[in-house]
């Protein structure tokens, strides 16, 4: 991992610091459910952004850190974990067989967020990007428990790319390598958190300069709306 979990974190912090200068509060309805990437995230906490920071702002940082971690784990896997690397390459090949992948190629701050805005009650969507993203191509690997009768039959066209099922030994090896990859990811995560803690003063300064005034302005707006004679507080 060495060249640089820390320098990659610093690089992504610089990207986030540039992004935050352009941040504006959303005018549409936000997401209704909690974000699994950010809620309770040690990364968001290490950065000092866990409290009183809009989710979109947290999300832009946590997704950038996820990119750092994923890239490091991918490199480690490619170098040290041949069975897992092979399986991942197969599944990547299967995914690239998908015709349209709306969740790919998004900027970090948009990844992992809802693909579609909330529909209006009287105007449901004909289709949504989430539906398109959920359409998976058929599995390339068949279920391992095949009877001799079916495996001897002619392969049908849909399964011409089918791969032989994993042997028990391969399954054990794969499980062991997945465990190593998990451990490695945890180590990288800890280093990311430590580096973010060092960067915390810069992150908080950016929040104070670019986010806080806009949040305060929104709150002030809201208050003046509530005070409006068109919407009396005590009708
Ligand atoms: Zn999030």
Task: Give an account of the 3D structure.
The protein is mostly helical. It has one domain (1-21, 37-114, 167-235). 57% of the residues lie in helices and 0% in strands. It has helices spanning 5-20, 42-47, 55-80, 82-96, 129-134, 148-152, 168-226. Helix 1 (5-20) packs parallel to helix 7 and helix 3 packs antiparallel against helix 7 (168-226). The protein is flat, with a radius of gyration of 24 Å. The protein starts with a helix and ends in a 9-residue tail after the last helix. Residues 146-160 have low confidence and may be disordered. The structure holds zinc ion (ZN). Zinc ion (ZN) is lined by residues 35, 37-38, 55, 59, 62. Residues 136-165 are annotated as: Disordered. It comes from Cryobacterium ruanii. This is Spermidine/putrescine ABC transporter substrate-binding protein.
Features:
235 residues, mainly alpha, 7 helices, 57% helix, flat, binds zinc ion, Spermidine/putrescine ABC transporter substrate-binding protein
State the distance separating the first and last CA atoms.
64 Å
Number of domains: 1
Low-confidence stretches: 146-160
Principal-axis shape: flat
Question: Ligands in the structure?
Answer: zinc ion
Secondary-structure element order, as H and E? Answer: HHHHHHH
Total beta-strand segments: 0
The profile of the biggest β sheet is: none
Give me the number of helical elements.
7
- Please compute the radius of gyration using only Cα atoms: 24 Å
**Helix-strand makeup class:** mainly alpha
> What percent of the residues sit in helical stretches (DSSP H or I)?
55-70%
* Arithmetic mean pLDDT: 82
In quaternary terms, these chains amount to single chain
**Strand residue content:** under 5%
Biased composition (Low complexity): 142-153
Region (Disordered): 136-165
Protein name: Spermidine/putrescine ABC transporter substrate-binding protein
């Amino acid at each position: 991992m060495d060249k640089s979990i820390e320098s990659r974190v610093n690089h992504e912090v610089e990207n986030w610091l540039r992004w935050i200068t352009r941040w504006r509060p959303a005018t549409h309805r936000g997401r209704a459910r909690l974000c699994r990437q950010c809620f309770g995230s040690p990364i968001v906490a290490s950065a000092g952004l866990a409290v009183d920071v809009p989710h979109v702002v947290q999300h832009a940082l946590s997704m950038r850190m996820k990119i750092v971690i994923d890239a490091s784990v991918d490199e480690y896997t490619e170098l040290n974990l041949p069975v897992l690397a092979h399986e991942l390459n197969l599944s990547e090949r299967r995914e690239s067989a998908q015709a349209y992948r709306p969740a790919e190629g998004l900027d970090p701050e948009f990844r992992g967020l809802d693909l579609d805005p909330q529909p209006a009650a009287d105007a449901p969507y004909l289709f949504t990007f989430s539906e398109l993203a959920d359409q998976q191509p058929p599995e390339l690997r068949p279920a391992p428990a095949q009877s001799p009768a079916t495996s001897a039959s002619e392969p049908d066209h849909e399964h011409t790319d089918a791969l032989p099922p994993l042997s028990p030994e391969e399954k054990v090896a794969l499980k062991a390598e997945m465990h190593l990859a998990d451990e490695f990811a945890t180590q990288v995560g800890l280093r990311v958190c430590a580096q973010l803690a060092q960067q915390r003063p810069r992150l908080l300064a950016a929040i104070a300069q670019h986010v806080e005034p806009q949040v305060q302005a929104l709150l002030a707006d809201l208050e003046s709306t509530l005070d409006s004679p068109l919407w009396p507080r005590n009708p």
